[in-house]
Amino acid sequence: MKKLLVLSLGLATACHTSQNTGSEVAKNAPKVVEYIPTPFAESIIESDLKEHLYTYASDEFEGRETGQPGQKKAIEYLKSEYESIGVPAAQSDGDYFQEVPLEISQVPSGSMNINGKEYVLGEHFLTFAKAEGTFDNIIYAAYGIETDNYSDYEGLDVSDKLVLIKSGEPMNADGTYTLSGSIVKSSWSNMSEALGKKVEIALNKGAKGVLYYDEGNFARFNNRFQYMKTNDSGRMQLAADDNGSFFNFIIDNTLAHIILPQIDTDSESRELSVPIAINIKSENKKIESENVVAFIKGSVKPDEYLVISSHLDHIGITADGEINNGADDDGSGTVAVLEIAEAFQKAVEAGQRPKRSIVFLHVTGEEKGLLGSRYYTDIDPIFPLEKTVANLNIDMIGRIDPKRTGERNYIYLIGSDKLSTDLHQISESVNDEHTLIELDYSFNDENDPNRFYYRSDHYNFAKNNIPIIFYFNGTHEDYHRPGDTPDKINYDLLENRTRLIFYTAWEIANRDERLMVDKIPAK
Ligand SMILES: [Zn+2]
């Protein structure tokens, strides 16, 4: 109804202007273009989404695993689609591909020589990265704890030294804990938490490396170490995350007592004259992967950016050769971004270029730990993050959550109200006006045990205080299984959900004021 009204107004204006040709007013008046999203939103249609998805999630793309041939097919497909609709690359050199160098950590090998005796990695000590060094002595820092009123580092200089610490926390003679003054343990006794905190303290004090005596963590990491050794498979990570030369060893009871026989009862920080030579080698396997980034430059505020994202990768082929097509995850988001880009490009061609710039970001390595989006935000944001007004992230919008009751015309929204009241209101109002989808906030709860807010690419923007909305249909029986195929997608829902995102993007890109960040996120 609104569209008709505006169109007839437009017609009236045109008639009026034509009757006044020749008048100075008409000649000098700026050409006013009515910004109407509806015709462009309506160019997003089921059949186009379906056509894209039947290719993108076909067996030919082999499940699009990061670094594999299927992922290369996916990026080539995206590039050729952007070329054909006329949306240019975001990078100034015209390359649609943003290289995201990754590596898989391989289990290291080598040994440690203590007092002239050789110990092999994996027997009495563990580490997951290369390490080298020769030390005349070791600095024993007992529990390795430092707080406002307690320190095991008093009088110790650990810079460039090897530090030996043990698990647990100090106790008084009466059996109470020194830090709490009672029989209650502190977080320094929590196995996982203490490991990270104690190692960080040593690192911050300039230590070269840590020997951490902890039977609990030794058992835990030994399982992982032996598994990796047998399966030769480490974690994929950003190549840039290779954290330099600092090293961290978990040592067992035997090795701890070789270095300091009375370590269990001795908590006096000091230098121990025990010479150690460490020689651990690790070759990480390099993986090449790419984000695909396209761009429409804004007309009025070209240096403010809206990022619309989805992940281009999926989980590849199963051990027994079945292809995980990933039609919903995240083929649905991928084809939605393509169609949104095309709709904006049609607007550009009709003289309605968005006022702010729009970045169409297809990230790699999501399934490996949000790597492509983290590369974009933490290492190489093509456009400044402080000028990035919002991120609309789409990850699975083509299916229906079978556990959900209620009508099928819904979508879960996560994060819309976390940083910006404006964003939440825009999202609600464009939906009321245009798409009438039931916006379900079930997973938006801070205490949601699924923690979806932290589990897709938008999180890398949110952690930089950039308002986000995560669009998601929930999980289903085919999630991360070969059954996630394009025939199971609800294309009518995919169409309407994609239009909702387009309308939201339109409003963010074209409104006068930048979205206000007026809320502090819960940590
Ligand atoms: Zn996904």
Description:
- Helix content is 32%, strand content 20%.
- By secondary structure, it is an alpha/beta fold.
- Zinc ion binds at residues 311, 329-330, 366, 395-396.
- Zinc ion (ZN) binds at residues 311, 329-330, 366, 395-396.
List keywords for this structure.
523 residues, alpha/beta, eight-stranded mixed β-sheet, 23 strands, elongated, disordered N terminus, binds zinc ion
Short summary:
The protein is an alpha/beta fold and 523 residues long. Helices cover 32% and strands 20% of the residues.
Show the helix and strand layout.
Layout: H1 2-19, H2 24-28, H3 38-41, H4 46-56, H5 69-85, E1 97-99, E2 102-104, E3 109-114, E4 117-120, E5 125-126, E6 131-135, E7 138-140, E8 146-147, E9 150-151, E10 162-166, H6 191-204, E11 209-213, H7 215-231, E12 236-238, E13 247-251, H8 253-259, E14 270-272, E15 276-281, E16 285-287, E17 290-296, E18 301-311, H9 327-349, E19 356-363, H10 371-379, E20 388-394, E21 410-414, H11 421-435, E22 438-440, H12 458-462, E23 468-472, H13 491-510
Parallel strand pairs: 7-10, 10-11, 11-13, 18-19, 18-20, 20-23, 21-22
Antiparallel strand pairs: 1-17, 2-12, 2-16, 3-4, 3-15, 5-13, 6-15, 7-14, 8-9, 17-19, 21-23
The structure holds zinc ion.
Residues 311, 329-330, 366, 395-396 line the site of zinc ion.
